[in-house]
């Protein structure tokens, strides 16, 4: 009988494999804590609960971690601020991007699409983005490289995508955040005949929707949302092989300066997806409210259910993990 303990696994592989499951726990805990305040109309309290839980769980991990995308800069965010060290300092050196509650308003109003999300990568591989806006464009996998571009007109992008998909432009569905700043964009997309799904919040999930077109019906994401959310979305999309570009909106000298102190020397740079997130990345997202990607947290009698998507760029694996957390006294999720 042969023994299988002679299989050689690269040490980095082992670390990453173990960490993928650890990240699931981190976002699960953040989601459960936020969901206890779901539908209570208090965005701040829900966000704080998610931040507390995420930070506590991160500090339990065997990592030498540093927050690169977090709740804000040190002076404005007491927890999970940019530059904060997390983990027990013992394991691999990693950079971490977090959004403990992406869609605080969605959670406070119990509307679809709030998630707890984080990405972890080798140190130096996530863009240190300031908390400004980012202009973004994203499509799912399977298209030739470069068929859409942030600098092309909306009409050219929709038409090129339709051609590559082998459909008419009126069979393309775009997703755009419902904001006055998008009035011209929305008009231009509508002129092509494409349909638009407007969302009130939550464009990390919005970008990921393009990679699951068969489930979400969305072909392309367009428009301006948060830059930190752009990095998280790029990290997830990289794992499944879509295309994305982003450009920071640094429209005041103060923002240009803030970006410069974070190492960004060209304020007009158009970032490709693998410049937003490179190297080996793991992304974990747990549903807080129900959404197209994930069910929200369910509080049952004696048991809490969670749903999490975990992405790994090294293998392109996407796992949907259903957690059943039995509320035995000693294992209780708080
Ligand atoms: C964006 C978007 C996020 O908040 O940051 C948005 O990326 C804020 O946009 O997903 P406005 O300033 O226009 O309100 C979210 O929708 C949720 O955090």
Features:
alpha+beta; 2 domains; D-Maltodextrin-Binding Protein, domain 2; Fructose-1,6-Bisphosphatase, Chain A, domain 1; 334 residues
Describe the structure.
There is one protein chain. The chain has 334 residues and is an alpha+beta fold. The chain folds into 2 domains: 2-124 and 280-326, Fructose-1,6-Bisphosphatase, Chain A, domain 1; 133-276, D-Maltodextrin-Binding Protein, domain 2. 31% of the residues lie in helices and 27% in strands. The protein contains 10 helices and 14 strands. The protein has helices at 11-35, 43-58, 104-108, 154-165, 183-191, 203-209, 213-216, 227-240, 253-261, 273-276, and strands spanning 64-69, 85-86, 93-102, 115-122, 133-139, 173-177, 195-199, 220-226, 243-249, 270-272, 281-287, 298-300, 303-312, 317-326. Strands 1, 2, 3, 4, 11, 12, 13 and 14 form an 8-stranded mixed sheet that branches. Strands 7-6-8-5-9-10 form a 6-stranded mixed sheet, with helices on both faces. Strand 6 (173-177), helix 5 and strand 7 (195-199) form a beta-alpha-beta unit. Mean pLDDT is 92; it is low at 1-7. The protein binds 7-O-phosphono-alpha-L-galacto-hept-2-ulopyranose. Residues 102-103, 179, 201-204, 225-226, 229 line the site of 7-O-phosphono-alpha-L-galacto-hept-2-ulopyranose.
Describe, in short, the structure shown.
The chain folds into 2 domains: 2-124 and 280-326, Fructose-1,6-Bisphosphatase, Chain A, domain 1 (2-Layer Sandwich), CATH 3.30.540; 133-276, D-Maltodextrin-Binding Protein, domain 2.
Outline type: globular
The count of strands amounts to 14
CATH class of the largest domain: Alpha Beta
Count of individual domains: 2
Please give the CATH architecture of the largest domain: 2-Layer Sandwich
What is the arithmetic mean of pLDDT?
A: 92
Bound molecules: 7-O-phosphono-alpha-L-galacto-hept-2-ulopyranose
How many helices? The count is: 10
CATH fold-level assignment of the largest domain: Fructose-1,6-Bisphosphatase, Chain A, domain 1
The CATH superfamily label of the largest domain reads Fructose-1,6-Bisphosphatase, subunit A, domain 1
What radius of gyration results from the CA coordinates? 20 Å
Note the beta-strand portion. 25-35%
User: Low-confidence spans: pLDDT under 50, at least 5 residues?
Assistant: 1-7
